Amino acid sequence: MSSIRPWRTIERRRSRQIMVGDVAVGGDAPVTVQTMTNTPTCDARATIDQIRRCEEAGADIIRVSCPDVESTAALREIVRAANVPIVADIHFHYRRALEAADAGAACLRINPGNIGSAERVREVVNAAKANGCAIRIGVNAGSLEKNLLEKYGEPCPEALVESALDHIRLLEDHDFREYKVAVKASDVFLAVAAYQQLADAVDCPLHLGITEAGGLVGGTVKSSVGIGSLLWAGIGDTIRVSLSAEPEEEVRVGYEILKALGIRNRGVRVVSCPSCARQGFDVIRTVQTLEERLQHIKTPMSLSVLGCVVNGPGEARETDIGITGGGGGKHMVYLSGVTDHHVRDADMVDHIVELVEQKAAEIEAQALVEQGLDAAE
User: Binding positions for [4Fe-4S] cluster (predicted)?
Assistant: First the structure.
């Protein structure tokens, strides 16, 4: 069988690349996964603890809100402690942007048109330049400018794009090009249409998101539909899944979207059945337990967990490790797609975790060998 599968090909929109701290966004850089803390930023310790959990989940960039001077005062300690670039979320108070830039923020999330006079915009741009900050323009359907609402009558793709272009112009008038742009809406159709129009109008990196998407289940579905359809069309350089859930959950969902599209892999991709009366073990509880116990695995690999032999062998042939339910509490384990040995119910979960950890170690060791060979050449 040919390894070329054109129906899996995603032709990514070519954007220019910017740097957010030491993380490249746009161009040929990997699509990055972002989240945002929900602790009071002025509580540096609580915020740093939450950042640690998000880093462990794989966050590439983390945003913190800076609504007051106490928050920007704590930002310097937060930035020093973080292992990933920190974005300072600024809305109307331009002085918070100046303080955040001086405190070491890698990026300022700000809409230049919302912070007042041209002189204030100039000050913010100069602070960003002096401190090596990028800027993220964040247009939101829920906070469009009054003149655009009057012009268009309601939030629409054209209004979001016009707002973004107006903000972009303010930055480029000051010879500032280190920016990325988001045009978010809670309505999936509105957000997707706005991003599609903006992608044709600009060459900057685009930050994708469906804002105010909802809780863990509903928000995951909306975000997957919206963000996923844009990524499938090649649009998007960095993503944030906005959920009414802990921020580390946003990171995990973000990676699941990227994994589903084959854009970026991290950790274990689980293939599992919905279960039925044919199942030889409790598939639902087994998958839940495995997902929890395998969260520490960062190495990309695949695991199939199927309850019976109808689809189990076929799925197992396509995964690194697989298990298929059998009779009498005895189940078949597949390694690299080939039947290898049996395991009993009582030992199954522990055994699979051990196999995954061993496989991860093997892959990582092989990668180190290949890196050494490349360096030698």
Answer: 273, 276, 308, 315
Query: If you count them, how many residues does the chain have?
Result: 377
Q: How far is 63 from 243, CA to CA, in rounded Å?
A: 14
Residues 359 and 255 in one domain: no
- In the chain, the number of structural domains is 2
> How far are the Cα atoms of 104, 181, 186, 305 from residue 173, in angstroms, in the given order?
24, 16, 31, 56
pTM of the complete model: 0.91
Residue type, 27: G
Segment among 58-62, 161-165, 185-189, 371-375 with least mean pLDDT: 371-375
What is the residue whose two structure tokens read 């975000």?
Answer: 223
* Domain annotation covers residue 7: no
Distances (CA, A) of 161 to 92, 113, 202: 20, 14, 10
Using an 8 Å Cβ cutoff, are 114 and 91 in contact? yes
Query: How far apart are the C-alpha atoms of 237 and 134, rounded to whole Å?
Result: 15
Domain termination residue (choose one: 199, 228, 260): 260
Which one-letter DSSP state was computed for residue 336? T
Burial 339-368 (b: 16+ CB within 10 A, else e): eeeebeeeebbebbbebbeebbeeeeeeee
- CA 45, CA 53: separation in Å to the nearest integer? 13
Which residues belong to the annotated binding site for [4Fe-4S] cluster?
273, 276, 308, 315
Q: In terms of residue numbers, what domain contains 357?
A: 268-376
* Amino acid type, 79: V
For the chain, what is the radius of gyration of the CA atoms?
23
337 and 354 share one domain: yes
Q: Which of 201, 226, 260 is the last residue of a domain?
A: 260
Identity (one letter) of the amino acid at 151?
Answer: K
> Within 13 Å and on the Cβ side, how many CA atoms surround 354?
7
Q: In what order do the strands lie in the sheet with 321-324?
A: 268-272, 301-306, 321-324, 330-335, 338-344
Q: With a cut of 60, say whether residue 149 has pLDDT above it.
A: yes
Domain contains 321: yes
Retrieve residue 270's tokens: 């689980």
Could you tell me which residues are annotated as the binding site? 273, 276, 308, 315
Is 39 within 8 Å of 226 (Cβ atoms)?
A: no
Read off the DSSP letter of residue 3.
S
Instruction: Report how far residue 86's alpha carbon sits from residue 366's, in angstroms, rounded to the nearest whole number.
Output: 33
